[in-house]
Design the sequence.
């Protein structure tokens, strides 16, 4: 699998530092799991973060910190029963499948438009949301803009717009100034994971009228 549109280094560094929201972390982890050198990429980001930490002044520990830590080691730990391993969905990246704890078909899919369905996965602060799109081959998504940043990770199939063609593992990043309309590839169904801030801004009258009912 050849990925030609990877996420920027700033997102990987933020992921390694643990400074992302839950939805952002799931999105970035899903993308990283599809990269052939993901472990090396994250390790490099963690190394940079560790070097920065070495330059920080140390905090003063409480006088009894060591004693309390050693006391915790003596407490018995109850082993939780291990659930039987589940077969992972071949389309979902491992981090996304583990976070959802369900397969694609078990998600609550709602109608988005002709040949399109959506599943809302998570909502955070500042109208941030993580959701999934399923679109039939050849479907055209109307021209639209965004109220904030939006990132779209292709999990199956492909789509094209004025910024290029995106396939499994690729991420398209768009902002408030980016207007585009998407065309799904004709070879197979397209499934995407999207992370967005604020509502989509459709140009056409009919999509704008339907927007309150689709929740995007």
Sequence:
């Amino acid at each position: 699998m050849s990925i030609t549109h990877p996420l920027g280094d700033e997102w990987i560094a933020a992921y390694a530092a643990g400074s992302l929201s839950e939805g952002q972390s799931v999105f970035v982890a899903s993308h990283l799991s599809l990269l052939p050198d993901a472990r090396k990429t994250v390790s490099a980001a963690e190394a940079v973060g560790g070097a920065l930490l070495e330059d920080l002044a140390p905090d003063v520990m409480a006088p009894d910190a060591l004693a309390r830590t050693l006391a915790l080691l003596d407490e018995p730990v109850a082993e939780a029963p291990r659930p039987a391993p589940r077969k992972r969905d071949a389309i979902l990246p491992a981090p996304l499948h583990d976070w959802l704890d369900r397969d694609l078909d078990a998600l609550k899919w709602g109608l988005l438009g002709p040949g399109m369905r959506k599943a809302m996965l998570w909502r955070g602060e500042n109208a941030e949301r993580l959701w999934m799109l399923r679109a039939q081959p050849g479907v055209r998504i109307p021209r639209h803009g965004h109220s904030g940043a939006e990132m779209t990770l292709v999990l199956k199939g492909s789509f094209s717009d004025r910024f290029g063609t995106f396939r499994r593992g690729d991420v398209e990043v768009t902002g408030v100034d980016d207007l585009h309309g998407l065309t799904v590839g004709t070879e197979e169904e397209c499934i995407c994971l999207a992370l967005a801030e604020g509502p989509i801004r459709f140009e056409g009258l009919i999509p704008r009228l339907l927007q309150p009912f689709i929740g995007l």
About this structure: The two ends are 31 Å apart (CA to CA). The chain has a mean pLDDT of 80. The CA atoms of residues 65 and 71 lie 10 Å apart. The first strand starts at residue 110 and ends at 113.
